[in-house]
Amino acid sequence: MKFILIIAALLVLSACATVKIGPDATVLAENAIALATKAGGDEFAPTEMRFAREKLASANTSIEKQKYEVTIYLIEESEINSELAIEKSRAAKARREVNELRKSNEMLEVKLQETFGDDFK
Amino acid sequence: MSRSILKISLLLLLVSMTACVSAPKKDLALERVRDDLNKLTSNPELAGYATVAVGEAERAVRTAEQATGKDYYRGHLVYMADRRIQIAKAMAEREQQGQALREQQNIQSQMLIKSSQLEASQARLEAERARMLVATTNEEAERAREEKELAQQEQAESERAAELASQEAQQARKLAQSRASEADFARREANLASQQINSLTRQLENLQLRQTESGVVVTLGDVLFKSGETNLAEGAQTSLAEVVELLQTEPSKKIRVEGHTDSSGEAATNAELSQKRADAVRQALIDLGIDGDRITSKGMGQDFPIASNADEAGRARNRRVDVILLDN
Question: Are strands B295-299 and B320-326 parallel, antiparallel or unpaired?
């Protein structure tokens, strides 16, 4: 009977089997944050940058507590926030470029109208 | 006793089986994510942009919807789906801005083209004014001549009337002659000015000029070369003579000759062809008197079209040699 009990207890423990992860598991998430910073994330997507850093910090905590499965989710969530910060920064830069060109075109139009008067339309 | 232990262990077994398998229930966060995705895909402004990223977001939402397992695992999938949607939205916005950028670039070049056309027509007007000025000057000179003739006649009469005044009359004639040659000189100068303005106007009319960041670009169409050939066609010299006239107006500026082709044929062949053509135009410009040290030539191949390669008219515009009068 004791034997059955042990088997049952083992089954409970292994039901949500934990995955062992290496000590460098957070390296990719750190790299992603570095890339997002370089892309201007702190300027254009500060919220997503904060999320990416918080999730990474939580991942490091859960590694210490040996909660490896949660760690993997947290790393993925940190990485995807860095990815989003990069895309948001790119979109913001593209928008800025368009606005600058639009403004310079408006100035050019004014200048050309001053030069050529009503002929320029 | 042993029976109760068996019961407990069976119970534990059941618990263990359900631990990771809880039936999917109504999940508000998941519904919100699905809703966000629908909003993105039905946004008419962003339709057709970032289709790959939108597809990934769609897959992430479906994965979250079909997931079974622990609450925090499903929560994780919902979170990832939400971020995927945000990423797709940002990428779509960036592509949309890229489209807007191209439109603004188009507007800019339209304005520059229009302004260079207006400049050419203003030069024409100035030439017209100069012609009128010359005509007015001619009339004045004519009047002056008539007055002098009258004066000469009067002097001749007074000569006949009084031989004593002959010396004075002679002096007056000399004076009149010198005034006549002054008028003549003024007329010649006016003529010269009008010719210069005319020739500038002709250059602006006949050549395709564009002002770019690097300088004035003269585009020589595909009349210079026969298809596939690298030797200048007959008659090309005449077009080049006009270019030389223009280039000599700025003798201190460097010149770059760029050969371009359309996209038909091999890229490597096009690169070589465009280099040889650029070289041929450079040599022709040197033969027409441009200092060889001022000119460099480069084959740009097919990579810098100014028009679409999809139709023959566009390809003909892309087969060209650009002569650039560099600003520095």
Answer: unpaired
State whether B70 and A4 contact (CB < 8 Å): no
pTM (predicted TM-score): 0.49
Give A1 to chain B, closest Cα distance, Å.
6
- Is A107 an 8 Å CB contact of chain B? no
Joined tokens for residue B51: 């289709």
Burial letters for B221-260: b for 16+ Cβ neighbours within 10 Å, e otherwise?
Answer: ebebbeeeebebeeebeebbebbbebbeeeeeeebbbbbb
- B326 has which bridge partners? B215
Of the ranges A55-69, B56-70, B279-293, which one carries the lowest mean pLDDT score?
B279-293
Q: Does A109 touch chain B (CB under 8 A)?
A: yes
**B chain contacts of residue A73, beta-carbon cutoff 8 Å:** 72-73, 76
> Would the CB atoms of A12 and B15 count as touching at under 8 Å?
yes
* CB under 8 A, 24+ apart: contacts of B178-185: B179/B144, B179/B148, B180/B144, B180/B145, B180/B148, B183/B140, B183/B141, B183/B144, B183/B145, B184/B141
Residue B89, Ramachandran bin (φ over 0: left; ψ between -120 and 50: alpha; else beta): alpha
Q: List the one residue out of B16, B30, B15, B25 whose CA is nearest residue B68.
A: B25
Average pLDDT over residues A98-118: 91
Cα dihedral B175→B176→B180→B186 (10° resolution): 60
Mean pLDDT of all residues in B63-72: 90
Q: Do the bridges between strand B295-299 and strand B255-260 make them parallel or antiparallel, or are there none, so unpaired?
A: parallel
Q: Report CB contact under 8 Å: A91, B15.
A: no
| E-assigned strand segments in A1-121 | none
Who wins on pLDDT, A37 or A69? Answer: A37
Q: How buried is A36 (Cβ within 10 angstroms: 0-12 exposed, 13-18 middle, 19+ buried)?
A: buried
Contacts of B94 in chain A (CB under 8 A): 87, 90-91, 94
Chains A and B form CB pairs within 8 A to the count of 103
Using DSSP's 3-state secondary structure scheme, residue A5 falls into helix
Q: Alpha-carbon distance B28 to A74, whole Å?
A: 22
pLDDT in tens, B236-254: 777 777 788 878 888 888 8
